Amino acid sequence: MIPLRPFSLDHMLDDITLYWLTDTAASSARLYYESFAKDFSRIPLDFPVAVSIFKGDFFTPPKMWGEETYSKLFYWNEVPKGGHFRAA
Predict the structure, then answer these.
(1) In whole angstroms, what is the distance from residue 16 CA to residue 28 CA?
(2) Radius of gyration of the chain (CA)
(3) How far apart are CA 81 and CA 16, in angstroms?
(4) I need a surface site. Which of 1, 60, 77, 84 has the fewest CB within 10 A?
C-alpha cells in the first residue's frame, strides 16, 4: 500500500523521537517480531478485550470475527475515520 502523500522529514523525526524518548520502540515492534514466520491465523483469547475499528485501516474486520475470536469481548467500536497510526 502506497501512502497518499509522503511523510515530511520533520514528521518522520517526530515519530522517531517519540519512540526514542518514551523507550517504546522495542515494545511496539514486539508483535511483528513474534509474528514473523507465522500464518496469522486466529488465536482465540480468553481475557477481556476492547476493540476499536478505524475505517482508514487497510483491513476492517467484521464484528462477527471479533465475537468468534475473543470469548470475552466487552467493547466494539467502529470509528468513521482514522487509521492504524493516527487519525486521518
Answers:
(1) 12
(2) 16
(3) 24
(4) 1
Are 54 and 82 spatial neighbours (Cβ–Cβ below 8 Å)?
yes
Residue keyed to cell 469481548: 73
Cα–Cα distance measured from residue 44 to residue 69, given in angstroms and rounded to the nearest whole number: 5
Residue 31 vs residue 78, higher pLDDT: 78
Cα dihedral 67, 71, 75, 77, rounded to 10, equals -30
From the centroid of its chain, how far is CA 7? 19
pTM reported for the whole predicted model = 0.48
Give Dmax (Cα) for the chain.
43
Count of residues making up the chain: 88
What are 36's three cell numbers?
Answer: 514473523
